[in-house]
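Quick one:
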Amino acid sequence: MAEQKKKVLVVGAGAAGMAAADTLAQHPDRFDVTLIDAVDYCGGQAFSIPIDKERHGASWLNQGVQGGSYIYHHSFKMFEKQGHVSTPVKLQVSFGKDETFWTNVFPTKLVEKHRSEIKRFHRALKIVHYTELLWIYIPIKVFGKMFFLSDDFLNFMILPTIALFLGTGNATPDVSSLVMERLFTSPTFGMWYPGDPESLISNHPPMVVFPEFSKFYGDWKADLESKGVKVRLSTELDHVVSRDKKSVKVAIRPRRPIEDGHNPNGADQDLPLGEEEYDELILCVLADTAKGILGKQARWIEKRVLGGANFSDDITVTHWDSDYMKKYYENAYNEKEAVQNLHGRDETARIETGRNEFKPMYYIRQQKEDPRKLDMCFDCTNYQAQFPTDVPFDRHIFQTIFLNKKDKHLWTMDEINPDKIIRKDWWHQLCHRFTLYALVVPWMWLLNGRKRTTYAAAWTLVNAHEVAIISGMAAAYRLGAAYPKDLEEDSFALLCFRLYLLLSHGTWYRKGSHGQSLVHQD
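Output:
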């Protein structure tokens, strides 16, 4: 007698939900998969918008997610399967303005000023490296005091290097010191490896720029549907009605598509709720959203763990106001701040690189009122691969991110020329506080698989497209799907998957296995 198909509801059509559905779809004889999302597109925070090609040199712009690290093997595999590729790029950054300006491209007076602290910082990283478990729960702001680092050094040099990679914004002082150490010392995961004891960072991190996300996710959606996955957009999971050892009942409400589906304003409360029943539920949504969906059905441990993730409300303004950018950021080589000789080390080559090739892709500025508060910005024209290299600066497109609505009184958003604003997008953004690694990440294995519910999202570890993809695959593996064989043959990809599966699901992956042994832990 043929085994009855397991009905699985995947909630959230971002990277995690798409990866979960894709992995389950390898077994059409075993899984009946439904994928829903409240908005009218697939991709979550990763999407593209149309722009004026005649003015800006390209017809589209990636929004929300720009690119990532060269180690994102799972993401690359998903791109490849749909006929899309990412583009390598060497990252250039511009931190601060005038006397607080510095960059990884050439040395400046600020770097020279903090010479002794840079050396002390690198020595401190060695101590953290050899006693790493002690530093998981110690935030960067405490680390700085322990090693007698000045506020100026922390605020203007260390915090921007962390905020850039993790997108932690104003919560950066509370990031785990161990996470910081990894970014500087890990040859695999470290963005700023190898560190420079003279200028803190002088490498140009090898990054990748992602393909046109709306096309990629559109192709991926079509591929899933061709494999039998039922993709229902403009469909919202309102709440979980009941959960037991046999099934999950959920209340689902349709949504009216809105003109800009990327900024939904909440459920259409006048539309009817309908109940549906599934064998398994995979929640690929933010932690606080998952907690709200579970409502009264949430166990006490779910309330505690899901409630341990902190979020802030940020806004991205996409614009082409070059005058605003010149006012608040260093956009070009600054002869006045450049340093030719750094503590006896000849910097001629780096100076020449800066003079001829400095095209920053990523900016951070500190607020004068409180230097621990940041604004972040992308020069998308310098960063994204679809743009030609000769676009005049006054036609560049920028994405300026104003962080944490609670700090709105510090924002300079109103100074951006409204005639040059392309769009505004609000984000509910994960804060990588040390509490995430104390209250959430170590305990996900206690949540996954219980009460027919599994979790998959970047917030379960670190906010990155790659983590979202891995988490979705891990959720599908837990329900009995196979880890893709082509990725299994990639030793680095397999290692990342194994480590995530161990941490978030409490098991070690064995080659060639399916995840049946992880099911039914009620």
